[in-house]
Task: inverse folding
């Protein structure tokens, strides 16, 4: 079974803190994604990585950065957390290309910034 | 740019009955993929069903089927013989043929009553 894990289910941080959200997948997927999920807005793509050290901005990259030093790990970084970044963050992964295009999701991290 | 619209924020159904969730999308492309994902409460998002735009036949997975109307840009999900375990958020998603990124709708929360 494909497994996508995220470092924390719940996280509470203070405004201005640097926050790291980690995602690990065990299926040798090339692609990894970070989404933000908010009620009434669905899932919005923050960043996408299609290979080690490669990244592409999604629809809402402002205030976020990412790191992919190893194929199995994709980190989302909030350089200076703000209250409007309180949200559910979902990581996903899949193989590149049309052969297997289902995205596999992690359990999510609910981040609260106070 | 492509968009995905789910006009029903909430739906409810009686156990064993049938329910249809609506999804419309906007695109100028002719080759693409459509998906329904399910997010149960406090559990990971999973793929329910997918449809390739070039296929005229509607996809079916056990109790789940879609009504794909390409000209109308409509992609509804029908759940037959609803079960309590079907209660979840359902997201419709679009993927262009030349990208691995998904565009999600805002979701429909389905309640199933005994």
Result:
């Amino acid at each position: 079974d494909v497994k996508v894990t995220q470092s924390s289910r719940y996280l509470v941080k203070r405004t201005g803190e640097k926050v790291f959200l980690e995602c690990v997948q065990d299926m040798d997927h090339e692609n990894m994604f970070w989404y933000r999920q908010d009620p009434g807005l669905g899932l919005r793509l923050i960043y996408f990585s299609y290979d080690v050290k490669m990244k592409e901005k999604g629809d809402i990259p402002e205030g976020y950065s990412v790191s992919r030093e190893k194929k199995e790990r994709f980190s989302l970084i909030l350089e200076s957390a703000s209250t409007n970044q309180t949200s559910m963050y979902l990581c996903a992964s899949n193989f590149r290309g049309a052969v297997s295009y289902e995205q596999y999701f992690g359990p999510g991290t609910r981040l609260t910034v106070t | 740019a492509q968009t995905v619209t789910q006009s029903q924020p909430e739906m409810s159904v009686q156990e064993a009955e049938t329910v249809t969730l609506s999804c419309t999308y906007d695109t100028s492309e002719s080759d693409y993929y459509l998906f329904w994902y399910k997010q149960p409460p406090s559990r990971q998002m999973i793929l329910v069903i997918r449809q390739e735009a070039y296929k005229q036949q509607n996809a079916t997975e056990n109790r789940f089927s879609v009504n794909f109307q390409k000209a109308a840009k409509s992609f509804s999900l029908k759940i037959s013989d609803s079960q309590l375990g079907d209660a979840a958020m359902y997201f419709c998603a679009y993927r262009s043929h030349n990208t691995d990124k998904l565009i999600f709708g805002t979701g429909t929360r389905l309640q199933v009553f005994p």
